[in-house]
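Supplementary notes for students who missed Thursday's class. We covered one full example, reproduced here. Read the sequence, then the structure, then the short commentary at the end.
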Amino acid sequence: ATHYLASSSTLMTFLGAGVLGGYTTFSTYNVELLTLINSRRWWAAVSYAGLSLIGGLLAAAIGLAHW
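Structure (token representation):
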């Protein structure tokens, strides 16, 4: 398992898709949420934040259950 994790293609996939993908997705989420808040669309902002959290936790639980 250690040899597999240390291979350069696995590391590059993890860094490229995992770390950078997660960072850009989170950045977009924050910009959209702040845009809703700044435009005083409170219900949309609360719904967006809450559904994103619930959806993320649900997706993680499904992923862990199938791992």
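Commentary. The mean pLDDT is 86. The CA atoms of residues 58 and 64 lie 10 Å apart. If anything here is unclear, bring it to office hours.
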